[in-house]
């Protein structure tokens, strides 16, 4: 569709949604086990008029998830990680970082009759309705992923939009944590999800994302997925379930993904 709040919004709203301050402080997570190339981390052009989530600290929710906000990002000091400690339930599990837009859902400002959710989002003092379509088989996919992995939502979208969408999408509490734009690294015009900042063993970390730019620092950890907009015959998520079932047993995701990619 033509007016996603995250990637394909016409000019004015797109500026509000996509521009913002990225990480300004390089951080090195002591739990990362693979040295990273040290991407340039800069402050993105300011000027966003989208209000920030402010004053939050990570808080336990009914689902056991933790919201990581701008305030937390700024409070973090070198040597800390984006994710909290692994819970007892997830000990030994591979961590899967899962994208939101065009991977699990597609959202639009344009009214549609078959929206699964309609989420009010305030932009510059005006409340806009965001119409959200769930990708086919997303419920089945998330349920199975929650059984197999430590699942983390990681989106380059703003929490103001993505958090309420995830509340509606993930009613079982599959996501142990949620990371938003503030947790991305702004690199060459793109919001990159730097897995080395998570605080997890990179040999036990996967990322599922429709945008290769999101995992440009860690292509060896990526499970690509086609971008989804509104094709209700799409079966990508259903088809990914057996692949992730196999990956859940991996001792080293680099080796396992390498084997899966081999012709
Ligand atoms: Mg996406």
Automatic annotation (TrEMBL):
Annotated region (Disordered), positions in chain: 31-57
Catalytic activity: O-phospho-L-seryl-[protein] + H2O = L-seryl-[protein] + phosphate; O-phospho-L-threonyl-[protein] + H2O = L-threonyl-[protein] + phosphate
MF term (GO), any: RNA polymerase II CTD heptapeptide repeat phosphatase activity
Keyword terms of this UniProt record: Hydrolase, Protein phosphatase
SMART domains assigned to the protein according to its UniProt record, in alphabetical order: CPDc
Matches recorded under PANTHER family: DULLARD PROTEIN PHOSPHATASE
Protein known as: protein-serine/threonine phosphatase
Organism of this sequence: Apteryx owenii (Little spotted kiwi)
């Amino acid at each position: 569709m033509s007016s996603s709040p995250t990637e394909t919004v016409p000019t004015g709203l797109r500026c509000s949604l996509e521009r913002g301050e990225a990480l300004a402080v390089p951080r090195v997570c002591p739990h990362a086990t693979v040295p990273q190339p040290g991407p340039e981390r800069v402050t993105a052009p300011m000027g966003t008029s989208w209000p920030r989530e402010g004053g939050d600290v990570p808080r336990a929710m009914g689902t056991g998830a933790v919201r990581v906000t701008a305030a937390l990002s700024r409070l973090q000091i070198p040597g800390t990680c984006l994710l909290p400690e692994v819970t007892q339930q997830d000990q030994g599990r591979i961590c899967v970082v899962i994208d939101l837009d065009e991977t699990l859902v597609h959202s639009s400002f344009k009214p549609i009759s078959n929206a699964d959710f309609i989420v009010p989002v305030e932009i510059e003092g005006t409340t806009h309705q965001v119409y959200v379509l769930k990708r086919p088989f997303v419920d089945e996919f998330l349920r199975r992923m929650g059984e197999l992995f430590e699942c983390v939502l990681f989106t380059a979208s703003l929490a103001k939009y993505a958090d309420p969408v995830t509340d509606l999408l993930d009613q079982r509490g599959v996501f142990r944590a949620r990371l938003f734009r503030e947790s991305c690294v702004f690199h060459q015009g793109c919001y990159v999800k730097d897995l080395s900042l998570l605080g997890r063993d990179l040999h036990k970390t996967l990322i599922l994302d429709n945008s290769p730019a999101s995992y440009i620092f860690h292509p060896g950890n990526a499970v690509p997925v086609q971008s989804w907009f509104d094709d209700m015959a799409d079966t990508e998520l259903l088809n990914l379930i057996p692949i992730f079932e196999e990956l859940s047993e991996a001792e080293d995701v680099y080796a396992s993904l390498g084997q899966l990619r081999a012709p």
